[in-house]
Amino acid sequence: xxxxxxxxxxxxxxxxxxxxxxxxxxxxxxxxxxxxxxxxxxxxxxxxxxxxxxxxxxxxxxxxxxxxxxxxxxxxxxxxxxxxxxxxxxxxxxxxxxxxxxxxxxxxxxxxxxxxxxxxxxxxxxxxxxxxxxxxxxxxxxxxxxxxxxxxxxxxxxxxxxxxxxxxxxxxxxxxxxxxxxxxxxxxxxxxxxxxxxxxxxxxxxxxxxxxxxxxxxxxxxxxxxxxxxxxxxxxxxxxxxxxxxxxxxxxxxxxxxxxxxxxxxxxxxxxxxxxxxxxxxxxxxxxxxxxxxxxxxxxxxxxxxxxxxxxxxxxxxxxxxxxxxxxxxxxxxxxxxxxxxxxxxxxxxxxxxxxxxxxxxxxxxxxxxxxxxxxxxxxxxxxxxxxxxxxxxxxxxxxxxxxxxxxxxxxxxxxxxxxxxxxxxxxxxxxxxxxxxxxxxxxxxxxxxxxxxxxxxxxxxxxxxxxxxxxxxxxxxxxxxxxxxxxxxxxxxxxxxxxxxxxxxxxxxxxxxxxxxxxxxxxxxxxxxxxxxxxxxxxxxxxxxxxxxxxxx
Length: 554
Known about the structure:
Number of strands: 12
Radius of gyration: 23 Å
Helix content: 40-55%
Strand order of the largest sheet: 2-1-3-12
Largest sheet: 4 strands, mixed
Structural class: alpha/beta
Number of helices: 21
């Protein structure tokens, strides 16, 4: 099987290289929804992110016209049927508002999700299947974080007609942990649609490389070896987009209290020109001061940083550098990383700047940071998810006062990189299911039909209701276009999940969360001191990944 898969991968690689060469001939324009990592559709709306025509928008014959699964029942397992207070109603973006009558449902995006699902399931517009949703009920996000992988692994080990799933949708980083367990998730490369007659294709409808509704950059990061891909990220999994890390800021305060140079259009253009850095952010410290005053007004601060998970991971991992070297299937952690040293030094600088308030802790600190921001006390909020804009505090802000920027870069020579928070949910096929072909067809068609859902979420739920400024849509597109490059965070989380003792004391985000950045000014010596223990754990993780696609009963 591996040799056949290698042939498939080689063909796919050639196609990707041809596509990349074609894209390289064009000029990149972040104001247009077009990227090279296959994230999104080209539906023509501001929030779009595609480069090819959505198959659902043409009048040509469609691949699913001749597909009929005879109302086969497919089961989708989700992690929680309760709204997360920090990212509300996540399940509704997959299932739709199943508990809200259509006459009272007022959320356009969620109702579009429900309509999409009905169309895909139907015989007239889709593939003629039925979907049964089941839920893993775990109390609270913190408990879910540590138990999801074991819950899924146990379910697969005890797979039966009474306890089965065809597709799991759950937290991205914990799904990676589960993917290192034996015979949990199936390799989707076996169900990837390629040219007919190519050895290795055993049935399925995934068309990942030619259809651009998939986030192939993120999917590439969510694997450790080229011959095995289990996690799926596409427009169908809207939580991936809702969990993108952004930096909210108060546009009204910026334009009211700054100098004549504080024009929103100039600010947005500066960001698009690649000049948005942490030093640039600090240069706006005076924006928080009273009009005409040369000193900072302590009642109006630059930023209240919640020194917890999202700020720590966003600060460290929204970057284009790596803390590892890769040679095929071998990952070697670096003993030195000049960029990491500079970032820790910058973190120490931030913690000592007047106008920046460091709030220790996790959820309470995030809540207090959001309160200071939404009440007009701070120019910037802490690094947070795009979906936080859906919560009541942000919705209550004065119209025209809210906008977003990407997480700042270390310096102008780097590239922007958008990290997905650990609350993002991705999908994976059950190893023991016998419905992989039907499930792959369902995901493919759902992805094709999700362009309108995604664009409506961007245009109506985010841009239309909350974000001020004509340039905000270009900024949102740029953030979306940079989604990916998550391997740093993935490797650190895999080490953390595999060995908490080693991970909690030596993973870089955990160090940032401890709050006193001044003690971490010599990162090179720290890396050298802990790299051996971390490397040993990482080697075990990679080996577990490579042998996981094996049924223990075989």
